[in-house]
Amino acid sequence: MRAALFFCVAALASPAFAQAPFVPPTLPPAPLGGARVSGQVASIVGPTILLTLRNGHTMAINLRTAEARGNVPQIYPGEFLLVQGSAAGTGKMTAVAVIRAKSAPAAWPPDIP
Predict the structure, then answer these.
(1) pLDDT tens figures, 32-59
(2) Cβ contacts of 49 within 8 Å, gap of 6 or more
(3) I want to staple 53 with a disulfide (CB 3.0 to 4.6 A). Which of 33, 39, 44, 46 is the partner?
(4) Stretch 57-75: mean pLDDT, rounded?
(5) Cα–Cα distance between 25 and 47 in angstroms, integer?
(6) What is the average pLDDT score of the chain?
(7) Is 13 inside any structural domain?
(8) 109 C-beta neighbours (distance < 10 Å), count
(9) Following DSSP, what letter does each residue of 54-112 receive, concatenated?
(10) CB-CB contact of 53 with 59 (8 Å)
(11) Which domain holds residue 89?
């Protein structure tokens, strides 16, 4: 009986039963000339979302390029997102990738306008 118990404990402690640590999805660093912003979705109008940034300003973000690449999760008003892409003028951006962000702005990476 003791031998069987030892075998079970030894088998469960083996590396075959160990789980890899969870690695959350991340965006690659913003490319040279690229932009990255974080904020809360204020509204969704067709392929464009209005994102309220941490400074209170609103930015219109076109999602067509990111959607074509498959880099957009299902988005709902009120969600917090991190968006990477290229600035398309004051208050506008074309996204190439979108991921969900933590609900605490202090946890967001710095914006790259």
Answers:
(1) 558 899 999 999 999 999 999 988 999 9
(2) 41, 42, 43, 60, 61, 63, 75, 81
(3) 39
(4) 91
(5) 23
(6) 80
(7) no
(8) 14
(9) TTS-EEEEE-HHHHHTT------TT-EEEEEEEE-STTEEEEEEEEE--S-GGGSPPPB
(10) yes
(11) 33-106
| 79 domain-assigned | yes
The residue type found at 32 is: L
Query: What DSSP line would sit under 4-38, residue for residue?
Result: HHHHHHHHHTSGGGPPPPP----PPPPPTT-EEEE
Looking at residue 113, its pLDDT comes to 75
Q: Report the pLDDT value the prediction gives residue 71, as an integer from 0 to 100.
A: 85
* Token pair of 93 as six digits: 């951006």
pTM of the model as a whole? 0.69
Domain count, the chain: 1
- The length of the chain in residues reads 113
**Nearest CA to 113 among 64, 74, 55?**
55
Residue type, 6: F
- C-beta separation of 53 from 83 below 8 A: no
Q: The domain spanning residue 67 has which CATH number?
A: 2.40.50.140
